[in-house]
Amino acid sequence: MPELGRYEKLPRPESIETFLNYLSGNKLIETIEREGDQILVINRKRKSVIKLFMTNVYIIGIADVYEILSLNSDINAIVTMSAWNGYTQEAKLTCKQIKVGLFLFKEFLGAVYYDGTEFLDYITPEERERIRSKK
User: Fold this and answer.
1) What pLDDT does 132 receive?
2) Residue 1: predicted pLDDT
3) I need a surface site. Which of 26, 58, 78, 132 has the fewest CB within 10 A?
4) How far apart are CA 129 and CA 102, in angstroms?
5) By the 8 A CB rule, do 49 and 42 touch?
6) What mean pLDDT comes out for the span 21-49?
7) What does the alpha-carbon distance between residue 92 and residue 14 come to, in Å, rounded to a whole number?
8) What is residue 12's DSSP assignment?
9) Averaged over 48-63, what is the pLDDT?
10) If you ran DSSP here, which 8-state letter would residue 45 be given?
11) Would you say residue 105 has pLDDT above 90?
């Protein structure tokens, strides 16, 4: 049965389930609450609460960031859920400036250990190595 664009922005149920399984297995995470289809409230031990918006936008740009925030002004993180999704550097920079983390699925799984600037600036070990090898 065709999905008729349902998952153009809404993450697929199996992506959300996988994401929740990863988070639930993390000893830092105390609780995860679902607020609707796309919002999670993640309570962490000795860290700030993350209010996360999950999306399936293929490439998140600045317009997508502003659209998401206009409907969810109290979030502090956005994750694009599918492995082939991404975001523009302009969207990442804009999010940093307004103190909202913008992450790929895998990036968020590492960023969850941090707060503040370390959370906003998080990049995977593979990306750090790639940057290091370019110098």
Assistant:
1) 84
2) 40
3) 132
4) 20
5) yes
6) 96
7) 26
8) P
9) 96
10) T
11) yes
DSSP state of 54: E
Residue with tokens 């960031």: 65
Query: Given the DSSP bridges, would you call strands 29-35 and 39-44 parallel, antiparallel or unpaired?
Result: antiparallel
The total of other beta-carbon atoms located within 10 Å of residue 102's CB is 25
Amino acid at position 33, single letter: E
Q: Six-digit token pair at 2?
A: 């065709």
- Provide the b/e sequence for 30-41 (b: ≥16 CB within 10 Å): eebeeeeebebe
Band of pLDDT at residue 133, cut at 50, 70 and 90: confident
**How far, CA to CA in Å, does 113 sit from each of 29, 70, 129?**
9, 27, 19
| Per-residue confidence (pLDDT) for residue 2, from 0 to 100 | 45
The HSE-up count of residue 82 (CA atoms within 13 Å, CB side) is 15
How much is the pLDDT for 6?
59
Which pair of structure tokens corresponds to residue 20?
Answer: 């929740």
Q: What residue type is assigned to position 93 of the chain?
A: L
Task: For tokens 């290091």, name the residue.
Answer: 132
Q: Output the DSSP codes for 43-63.
A: EETTS--EEEEEE--SEE-HH
Give dist(CA 78, CA 119) in Å, integer.
Answer: 12
